[in-house]
Amino acid sequence: MDVLRVFCAPDGRYGNELGVVRDGSRVPERADRQALAAKLGFSETVFVDDPERGAVDIYTPSTRLRFAGYPCVGAAWLLDVPELVTAAGVVEAHQDGEFSWIVARADWARARTLRRYATAADVEALAVPPAGEWIYAWAWEDEAAGRVRARGFPGRGDGITEDEATGAAALQLTHELGRALNITQGRGSQLLTAPGPDDFIELGGRVAFPGQPSLV
Question: Does this model's pTM top 0.90?
Answer without folding.
Answer: yes
